[in-house]
Design a protein that fits this description.
This protein is mainly α. Helix content is 69%, strand content 0%. It has two domains: 84 residues, Orthogonal Bundle (Rna Polymerase Sigma Factor, Chain: A); 76 residues, Arc Repressor Mutant, subunit A. The longest helix has 30 residues. The termini are far apart. About 13% of the residues have low confidence.
């Protein structure tokens, strides 16, 4: 079945086509959702909610983008919407006068030996808002202005969260490297 036939079948509400689309894009959607959800059950809720929005919006799909890119964008927007619903408020954060240079990391992440699960665990130790902002910026490629508009925070607050995430992740990576050195010695 071609992608076009699959899309047309989903638009016509053919259950087989819908099931095939779900199976085809579940790995992509679950990997995205797992970056934002601290637990697998919550990630699955994100995937299913995002998939529902994909099915509802397939009539508007424009083929100038790949279907995977389009689905990814819908899922990330769905996760942002869910996050906004869950947040009763976002604390106002007072920014320091001088934010450290964000590119000054002197630790080479490539030298560390950890897998995706270790990285996911490190991201899950971050505060919820900081984790969401960092994922949107560093992994999904949103600009601070877009993040600020979507989450209802200021651009400066978005930058602060990314900076905080980098500091905390850097400390965790350095601690991991220290443990590895002690094991080797």
């Amino acid at each position: 079945m071609t992608e076009e036939q699959l899309i047309n079948g989903c638009i016509k509400q053919d259950r087989r086509s819908q099931n095939e689309l779900y199976k085809l894009y579940f790995p992509l959607m679950s990997s995205i959702a797992l970056r934002y959800a601290p637990e697998r059950d919550e990630a699955l809720l994100y995937v299913n909610g995002g998939y529902y929005k994909v099915l509802k919006s397939l009539k508007t799909y424009d083929q100038k983008h790949t279907l995977a890119t389009w689905i990814r964008r819908i899922l990330v927007n769905h996760i942002i919407d869910e996050f906004r619903k869950q947040q009763k408020y976002i604390a106002n954060i007072e920014l320091a006068e001088h934010i450290n240079d964000l590119n000054s990391a002197d630790y080479n992440i490539g030298e560390s030996h950890f897998d995706v699960e270790d990285l996911r665990a490190m991201l899950n130790t971050l505060p919820v808002v900081t984790s969401k902002v960092f994922n949107l910026f560093a992994i999904d490629g949103y600009k601070h202005k877009e993040i600020a508009e979507r989450l209802g925070i200021s651009i400066g607050t978005s930058k602060w969260h990314v900076n905080e995430a980098r500091k905390k992740l850097k400390k965790q990576l350095e601690a991991t490297a220290q443990k590895e050195k002690k094991v080797i010695i």
